[in-house]
Amino acid sequence: MTTTDLLPDADEEALRQAVRALLADHCDAPTALSAFAQPRPDFAALRAALLADMGLGELLAGPGGRDPAGAASAAPAEPEPGPALAGAAAHELGRAVAPVPFLTFAVAMAAVGALGADELVERLAGGAVGIVAAPFDSADLAVTTVEASGSASTVSVTGTITAVPDAQAADVLVVPARCGEDFVLVAVEAAAARIEGFPGLDETRPLADVSFDGAAGAVLGTGDAAGEACEAARLLGLALLACECAGLAERVLEIGLDYIRQRRQFGRTLGSFQALKHRAADAWIAVMQLRAAALAAVRSLSAAPAVPAGGEPGAGETEAGDRAADDPAAEHADAAIAVLTAAAYGKKVAVHVAEEMLQFHGGNGMTWEYPIHLYLKRAKADELLLGSREALERELATIIDIEE
Amino acid sequence: MSPAPQRTAAAERELVAAAVAAAARRLAGSQDDAQVRAVLYDEGLAWVDFPAGWGGLGVSAGLRAFAAEALAAAGVPVPDPHANAIGMGMAAPTIVEYGTDEQKALLARIYTLETIFCQLFSEPGAGSDLAAVATRAVRSGDEWTVNGQKVWTSGAQNADMAILVARTDPTVPKHRGLSYFLIDMHQPGVETRGLRQITGESEFNEVFLTDARVPDAMRLGPEGAGWQVANTTLNSERVSIGGGAAREAGMIGVVAAAWRAHPEYRSPAARAELMDLWIESEVARLAGELQRQQAAAGRPGPEGSGAKISFARNAQALSALDVRMRGAAGLRYDDWADRRPEHYSMTGRNPVYRYLRAKGNSIEGGTTEIIRNIIAERVLGLPGEHRVDKDIPFEDLPR
């Protein structure tokens, strides 16, 4: 186990401030709430402002990309935008419950990037949105029922994937599929798919069923390489989810604290009641721990190789802290431990703090007007994104040898 | 701490490195603890953030860890930080801030273990409400006479001196009538009795003060300022800047090891519980690591205030699971004899001991409830508790 540097980083802070400023101007609570309107706005302008204009899309593209506009002043000459920078952005997007497909896009970009599909990377970095066509709660992106057939480079795909997050915002779908005995990742134009949205708990990350009926697709990768790309993408997604949850929990706590500082009953502010003070203190501790864990997760991904070298993560390991720092498989296992810990904890804390703050609001917490429900809905849905908390804990248990 | 001349972080490090080199030169490989301690004090490496001449170099407290690493790298044995813990961690920072030169002369004796300290703060009637101490100190000439009872004093049986908070003026409200003393424990008016705990052992003491004497020269800080001085002591208790903890350090490591060694303890429900606590322990460790790094970089944050709450909650939940998951075997105890352990470990002995001892974690050194109040008020800016007694003379309070 290597000790992760958890001190603030100037580039991350600059990007954080830039994203926060942009969201303050373009994504206030009424904007986020409008995700629940019928018909649902497409938020194309907000998406373009963040992904294309600010350069978050290029940031996710990796070292080849230009440094994001917001970090330009503080960035060194040759920036290496990594998971930690993306985590800073995700934290802010979580604070605003922004209806922007950043996390899901990051997962797709990571998969495409890991396979070296430079042409598609460039297109996505330029503003096109890519989404992995996998169920919202998929804990293994390589599990698929979609069938592909055709040549080594071009295939046609058929099948249905239910409850895909952010699919309606996609220009390109990255589709995990089976091609005979092989696992393949295929790029399919969203226009060639049938994408049917349906109302869900959290409309800021909307769901859609996606189906293909012989749609044309370009093979991005096959076999182990495609599987490892999915794994790297999923780990990045979980780390960013932890950051989003940290931002969400931090902000909903602020909202709840503001409320109990002002609201008076029995001639006192609610915040003077010890029953609430103690719950607020506990919520603060959880948020503070989550921030540390989420930061450790993205920083450890920045340090670790994207894919395990020589077998399963943590295979044969018995002691979580007992590995050589220069062993790539050990580093990968270390990163997986950090990511799974942060994601499982983030799922627990975000929903808990949102529920607590709703209760702090009393009757107002039940109204459409107060923004608490936006946070509750996002947090509750996030319990399932990229695998349930229980699934992540089982996976973590295997790596750290807490077997049943 | 007293203001140090403005130096850059690099200059401070150089200062520490030079002191370490000088100490290593003087010690020339000696491993003798007394000699090592004397030289380290002399070279300003006892507490690097203390002023020069009083065991320090006047650099930032964040460099304590750096100094320990540099000493180890230079082959100098780093003295056990747990020896004379009350003297080192509580008495010394208070003496250096408030002490006269005569009192500060104790700093060298504390570091070289010639004067072992204990703490006489809590009383049967003053636990969380520490400002309610009723032990009386009455002055006659240059001497004070002390009468009262103190409790939860660890190490009193081995102590040479104590830091003492006593009431010197009962006619003013409770926070204003206290004074702080450095009292000799070796005198007829001081009686120490072991205080038996739920574990069966006597880890702590009760101390009875009957016409005990303390010279006015050993009053630390102004008369009536005991509360402010005591707060310096209590705040020092929470500032510990050491190395980072490893993953699975502490209670989680003990329970995880038992789980790995004993397949017969396992069940799906117990595993879910253990995994939840593993994650809770790991995120608490990471928050501590974040705090440690910030403090070492000279930018301490408020994160530390939550650490004790998480530590206590995790230790209690883990030790409770440990007893339960073992079935009847988990009930076995070694013996209930009244021990007086010189050294003890909260992760030692057996599951029953750990379960019972962990109950104290949310009480000792500030209850979880008091810490929650402190976080709510000082970190989150929520209103303070209603204090009915803050303007009433101590002698008029219902007790």
UniProtKB/TrEMBL annotation, chain A:
Keyword set, alphabetical order: FAD, Flavoprotein, Oxidoreductase
Segments of skewed composition (Low complexity): 68-87, 305-318
Protein name per UniProt: Acyl-CoA dehydrogenase
Domain (Acyl-CoA dehydrogenase/oxidase C-terminal): residue spans on this chain: 240-306, 323-396
Pfam families: Acyl-CoA_dh_1
Domain of life: Bacteria
GO MF entry, a single one: acyl-CoA dehydrogenase activity
Organism of derivation: Brevibacterium rongguiense
Ranges where the record places region Disordered: 65-87, 305-327
Family according to the record: Belongs to the acyl-CoA dehydrogenase family.
UniProtKB/TrEMBL annotation, chain B:
Pfam name, any one: Acyl-CoA_dh_N
Coiled coil: none
MF terms in GO: flavin adenine dinucleotide binding; oxidoreductase activity, acting on the CH-CH group of donors
Residues spanning the membrane: none
Cofactor(s) the protein requires to work: FAD
Domain Acyl-CoA dehydrogenase/oxidase C-terminal: 224-380
One Gene Ontology term, aspect cellular component: plasma membrane
Domain Acyl-CoA oxidase/dehydrogenase middle: 118-202
Entries under InterPro entries matching the protein: Acyl-CoA_Oxase/DH_mid-dom (IPR006091), Acyl-CoA_Oxase/DH_mid-dom_sf (IPR046373), AcylCo_DH-like_C (IPR036250), AcylCo_DH/oxidase_C (IPR009075), AcylCoA_DH/ox_N (IPR013786), AcylCoA_DH/ox_N_sf (IPR037069), AcylCoA_DH/oxidase_NM_dom_sf (IPR009100), Mycobact_Acyl-CoA_DH (IPR052161)
Keyword Signal: no
Gene3D superfamilies assigned to the protein according to its UniProt record, in alphabetical order: Acyl-CoA dehydrogenase/oxidase, N-terminal domain, Butyryl-CoA Dehydrogenase, subunit A, domain 2, Butyryl-CoA Dehydrogenase, subunit A, domain 3
Keyword set, alphabetical order: FAD, Flavoprotein, Oxidoreductase
UniProt domain Acyl-CoA dehydrogenase/oxidase N-terminal: residue ranges: 12-105
The family this protein is said to belong to: Belongs to the acyl-CoA dehydrogenase family.
Protein name listed in UniProt: Acyl-CoA dehydrogenase
Organism whose genome encodes this protein: Brevibacterium rongguiense
